[in-house]
Amino acid sequence: MRTITYAQGIKEALEEEMRRDPTVVLYGEDVANFGGIFRITSGLQEEFGAERVFDTPISENAFVGAAVGAAITGLRPVVELQFADFLFTTADEIVLKAGMWRYVHGGAFKVPMVVRCPSGAAGVGPEHGQCPEAFFMHSPGLRIVSPATPADAKGLLKSAIRDDNPVLYFEHKLLYATKGEIPDDEDYLVPLGKAAIRREGDALTLVAISAMVPKAMKVAERLAQEGHNIEVIDPRSLNPFDRPAIIESVKKTGKIVVAEESYKTLGVGAEIGAMLMEEVLEYLDRPLRRVAMPDVPIPTAAALEKFVIPNEEKIYQACRELLS
Fold this sequence. Notes:
Helix content: 25-40%
Radius of gyration: 19 Å
Shape: globular
Order of helices and strands: EHEHEHEHHEHEHEEEEHEEHEHEHH
Number of strands: 14
Number of helices: 12
Structural class: alpha/beta
Oligomer: single chain
Largest sheet: 7 strands, mixed
Strand order of the largest sheet: 3-2-4-5-7-6-12
């Protein structure tokens, strides 16, 4: 095992997949000469050349659309959006083309492409700080992953690049500098659609997504000191979604809290709640609790942003309410 950062995990995945497969290309705004807005792609053009790593004009709809064309004609493009919020400017190409063309054309071709989407509030306001995963869970044909650890950042991105379907890869900006252990295996993969149980317990199920995972682990430690062993589940992949992992946990605990940075209304937690109502209502001892963003634009002011973003205390209080 060795220790790397989340950002290193992403870069290693890109390097290894580009060395392994000559059809993998990487492009986006400033990814080549500047190394990307968060410097994750620094040095990749020097190694792989300007034909495989290059910059694009500021036109997300155009270069994501070009990726759809490249994917259906034999390449495996990885495109970088500077912020996940820009997915909305690419909606036609992402939702109606990438997500649906394989079905619309009777399976005549595959659409193997990855869109990297830096997400999360980090003092950049309402147009650059959202976690819009739930918007795209609603769209058929798209794979959606949201890693929370360096190992998953690497393993999920490698799997996403090899997948024959379009994958939206949500990487939370505040996780880039976090560190964690990763196996030495050079071909380390994390399968899409498989949740990770970060901590086992039987008092309550706490589902945490992306940057909520480290907060959830601290809450679990705090509750353990109070005599409550809760189970923490990191879905890692939102489509495909590991429904059995959550259902089996709730059968054991009877209580569930979902923590996410998406908006509360029709967020991931809402979908999990509906799933539990349909499939295991009889196992729920208490109503589901959601800790999420209120339905307001993300403030630019630091104090206001801190007020609306889910934090450890909000997660803790939701758990305590169900455990009381």
